[in-house]
Amino acid sequence: MVMTTLPPTDDPLLEEIVGPTPGQRLRTRVFGHMGLIFGAGVLLILLVIAVFAPWLAPHDPYAQSLMDRMQPPVFLGGDWDHPLGTDHLGRDYLSRLIYGARVSLMIGVIAATISGIIGTAMGVAAGYFEGRVDAVVTFLINVRLAMPVVLVALAVVAVLGGSLQVVIVVLGLLLWDRFAVVMRASTLQVRRRDYVTAARAIGASTPRIIWSEIMPNIANNLIVVVTLEMAHAILLEAVLSFLGLGVQPPTPSWGLMVSEGKNMMLFEPWLVMIPGAVLFVLVLAINLMGDGLRDVTAPEDRS
Prior knowledge:
By secondary structure, the chain is mainly α. It has one domain (33-59, 78-298): MetI-like (MetI-like fold, Orthogonal Bundle), CATH 1.10.3720.10. It contains 13 helices and no strands. It is globular, with a radius of gyration of 25 Å. The two termini are 40 Å apart.
C-alpha cells in the first residue's frame, strides 16, 4: 500500500491555491482597520482607568484644600503633586478626571442598553409582523422624533431632580428611536430572505426565527447604533451637567468639571480644555470603534 502525504497547512503554495481561512481573513480585517484599532485601544485604556480608579488616582477626588486651590498643571509651571492642577476648591484635577471616566462610561453603557432593548424590540416587531404592529411602531417613532431630546431631558430632570440615576433612566428612555428605525429597516430586508422562508416552512416558531435567523443577520447594524447612542448619551450627560441639571456636585463628571471651570475660562482655560479634550477623545474612540466593527462584521466582507 502506497501512502501519500498531504503538504503542510502552512505551505505558502497551498495557501495561495486554497486561500486564507475565515479566521485569517477576520484577523486581517481587524488589524488592518486603523480606526478600529485606535478606537478600541483608547476605549480599553479608559475602561481600565475607570475600573482601577481608586488605585490610579493620586488623591481623593472629593478632598478640598483651599490653600492649594487653582494650582496650574505641570505643563504650565505646576508641581508633580498635582500633575493636572487643582480646581477652585483645591481638589486634584487628575483624580477627578479619572473618577469622571467611571461616570461617563457608566452612563453611556447603561443608557445605550436600556434604549437598545426598547428600540430593538419595537423595530424587530414592526419589521417582522408589519401591518398594524408596524403602523403603531411607526407612529410612536414619529412622536418621539417630534420631541427634542435635550429639551425633554432638561424638563424631566428639572422636575425629578438631577442625579446620576435620573440621568441614566431619562436618557435610556429617550434614545431608542434610532434603534427602532434601523432595526425595522434591517428586519424588513432580512425577513424576505430564503433562509427565513425555509425556517417558516419547516415549522420553526416565531421566537426561534427572530433569535436564530434575523438577529444574527442584523447584529452588525445594531453594533453601529449602540456605539452611536453610547457617544450620544455621554454628550447629553455632559450637556445636562454643564447646565447644572445632570450629575450633581461633588460627584466627578467631565461635563460638571467644564461647568465649574467656565467662570475662569478666560484666565485659566485649562480648567475647561482638559475635561473637554478627554470627552472629545472618548466620543471619537467610541465612534471609530463602532464604524470599524461595522466594517469588519459587514456581510459583504465575508465572501
